[in-house]
Every structure is written in C-alpha cells, then in structure tokens.
Write a structure and sequence with these properties.
About 30% of the residues lie in helices and about 30% in strands. It is an alpha/beta fold. About 0% of the residues have low confidence.
Length: about 300
C-alpha cells in the first residue's frame, strides 16, 4: 500500500501505478487556529509506504509526515517505510556555532520516534545525516533518471558540467551513463583580491587549466543536487556561454529555487531549468517514480 502526503501526492500516485499497488487516500485540512487535521481513508495493510517530502513549508510537511507514520502504526501497520524525496533541515548536520540545534539529527529522531521502520531519500546533501538513524536507510541517486531525460531531449553527445568540484561526482555519474564528456568549474585565486572561475581540463594536467575546446559548440548541461538561490549556477551559465557553448541547460535534483533563482538563471542565458519532482516546482519534469518503485521492489 502506498500513501502520499499532501506534498507528494502526485509522485505517490505514479509510484503506486508503477508497482500496481493500492493508493490510499489521506484527508488533510487546517482548523481555524492553524492546527492540522489528518485522516487515513481505508483499511490499512500490514506493510505501508509513506511518500512525503518535507520542503517548504517545512514545519507543516514534517508535522504531517509524523502524524501519518504514528497514525498508521496505531491503525495496525506492522512496517512503515518512509520515502522522503527531499528531507528538510538536512543541511544542519553539525554545530557550526556554539548553541546551535543540530536540526538534521532532531528530525531523524522524530521520524524514528513516530514509528518509521525504514527511511528512503534522494541525494541527501550530507550523507552523514543517515548515520543519525538507527533504522535501515537508503540514499537513492536521481542521476539515472536525469540522464534518461537528457538522452531523450537531445540527439547528440552533451557536455555535463558540475558548477563546482563538490558536484563533480554527479556529473561523472551522468556522463558515465550517457558515455559523454564531463568537467567542472573551479575557482582559481589570481591574486590577493582576484578570483577567477575556470573550466577544468580534467583530461589534461592537474593545474586546473582552461579547456575552451571542450565547451565550444557543445550542448552543455549543468548538474547539481540542490539549487537554492542559484548564484553558483548563474555564474556557471555565464562562463559556459562565454566559452562558446551552443546551449546551456540547468538540471538539479531538488529545486528549492528561492529569491527569484529561476528568473536569474534564465537571464544569465540558460536554455531551460530542469529538476526532479522531489519538490513541486515549474521545473519538475523528471519523475522519481520509477527510481522509488525499483527500490521498493527490492
């Protein structure tokens, strides 16, 4: 049985369709004072999968997820798998300053305390967050789904570009699937007050030199796990255009896209902004349903 929270109902419906499983309806509403009401409509199977992202509004979606898990256990479910395509609060995995709340750990503890028996997510920003769980966890990569989308979109070999070295493994994963070239952008300090972002010649020397020929007349796809304000992506789009890329498309797993990020990316020269449906956004064109179904089958 598949149950979708209000943040992921469309995704849950597609997962149920992939698995030919029952999709259980959940009624949710707010009382006049802002408190949340939740009712599961139907008989509950012994094994249930809940799908609910905890993006904006994070507190509401998280509270709904906790209500769902605890309610299902109280209604007789023996095993509750929890699929959180995007886990809110996961970027505070440690104390950066004295006195800070380690929100990722607190959220993990809450999900477990509610009764979750297994936790599944996509491309969590810091893998150490999964260590906060004492239940089985799975961190699925969305790169296969993104690669499939790119492959269907164009009829030539693209250039996959990571906006920084941290995202380079994502670019390598997609390039490996598509059997194409990949690279990343690196900030190089030229002096005390001057920093330049360069395209790394990963096939050449290790001194991070510019490889203009690897970009010129190529259809470039920038890939990252999360795009929030989009500042790094805007910079990457401009550089690729300067070096003669035929087109630049931007892809990410989790489209937070705040403070006019999408508009700024387009204004920089991007052809499109593409994301998965881990969060609901205008850019959500890559479905995670098959990826989730494959893990649930196992």
């Amino acid at each position: 049985m598949i149950i979708g929270g209000s943040a992921s109902q469309d995704l849950a419906a597609h997962v149920a369709e992939e698995l030919n499983d029952d999709l259980c309806y959940v009624e949710t509403k707010k009382f006049p004072d802002g408190e949340r009401y939740l009712r599961v409509d139907g008989n509950i199977d012994e094994e249930v999968t809940v799908i609910q992202s905890t993006g904006y509004p994070q507190d509401e979606n998280l509270m709904e997820l906790l209500f769902l898990i605890a309610n299902l256990k109280d209604l007789g479910a023996k095993k509750v798998r929890v699929v959180v395509p995007y886990m809110g609060y996961a970027r505070q995995e440690k104390r950066f300053h004295d006195g800070e709340a380690v929100s990722a750990k607190i959220v993990a503890n809450l999900i477990q305390a509610a009764g979750a028996d297994e936790f599944i997510t996509f491309n969590i920003h810091e893998k150490c967050v999964l260590d906060f769980f004492d239940i089985p966890t799975t961190n699925i990569s969305a790169m296969g789904a993104i690669a499939e989308y790119i492959d269907k979109k164009i009829d030539e070999k693209p250039l996959i570009v990571a906006p920084d070295k941290g995202a380079y493994p994502f670019a390598q994963e997609i390039a490996g699937i598509l059997e194409c070239e990949c690279t990343y952008l690196s900030k190089v300090r030229l002096g005390p007050d001057k920093v330049e972002t360069r395209i790394v010649d990963v096939e050449g020397s290790s001194d991070e030199t510019v490889n203009v020929d690897s970009v010129k007349d190529k259809k470039a796809f920038i890939i990252d796990d999360i795009i929030a304000t989009g500042g790094t992506i805007v910079n990457a789009v401009k550089i690729l255009k300067e070096y003669g890329a035929k087109s630049v498309d931007v892809c990410c797993v989790h489209p937070i896209l705040v403070n006019g990020a999408t508009m700024r990316i387009y204004s920089a020269g991007a052809n499109s902004v593409i994301s998965t449906n881990s969060l609901s956004a205008d850019s959500s064109r890559v479905s995670l349903a098959k990826s989730i179904a494959n893990v649930l089958r196992d």
